[in-house]
Amino acid sequence: MADDETTEETTEETAAATADASSDDAPTSEAAEPAEPEEQLHPKEARKRARSRAAGPANAQRTPEERHAERVATRKAKAVARKRRRDQEKAKKTEKGSPTPAAEKAAGNPQVRRGTVVSAKPDKTITVRIDTARRHRKYEKIVRSSTTLHAHDETNDANEGDVVSIVECRPLSRLKRWKLVEVLERAK
User: Fold this and answer.
1) Residue 150 to residues 24, 26, 108, 162, Cα–Cα distance (Å)
2) At 136, which helix (H) or strand (E)?
3) Sequence-separated contacts (24+) of 30-33 with Cβ below 8 Å
4) Residue 52 — very low, low, confident or very high, per pLDDT cuts 50/70/90?
5) The pLDDT of residue 25
6) pLDDT tens readout for residues 128-138
7) Cα separation of 17 and 23, whole Å?
8) CA 83, 84, 86, 87: dihedral to nearest 10 degrees?
9) Residue 181 and residue 178: Cα distance in Å, rounded?
10) Which of 117, 124, 118, 132 is nearest to 164 (CA)?
11) pLDDT band, residue 14 (cuts 50/70/90)
12) Which domains can be identified in the chain, with CATH numbers?
């Protein structure tokens, strides 16, 4: 029996000690440990949680047909607003009296180029090489380049090596968009 009494005493002591320790530890653990830091959320996640906490009446459920009708209505409203805006911009342009660049270019001043005839073999057609030399913006070195244009020569007047003047015109064939104005210098 002595053994039983000692085990009972020890179990009672351990239980009391555990209860004392748990009651003592609870206030000290709160005071010793700071409150758990708030979880760092991504801004989108924080916004989502804030919206889910928002109080107020929920919007009524809509059928797919109602959603489609609303979508069509907003599209029409936006289309009307776009048209109004474009009309205002057109009116503003015409008030200034400045024609559009394309209309201005078509109306007057066709481009005139000067070059050397490279080939005069086809009938009523000459190939003209136009050489350009310009200074490079960054390196300031002279950069030379050339381009070839096909021009209409009605009388077959120009020959290879001639320096000619050509003018821009409507498309005459797949490659010809220029006409011969005059032969400036004959080849020797």
Assistant:
1) 102, 97, 22, 14
2) none
3) none
4) confident
5) 47
6) 999 999 999 99
7) 10
8) 110
9) 9
10) 117
11) low
12) 110-185 (2.40.50.140)
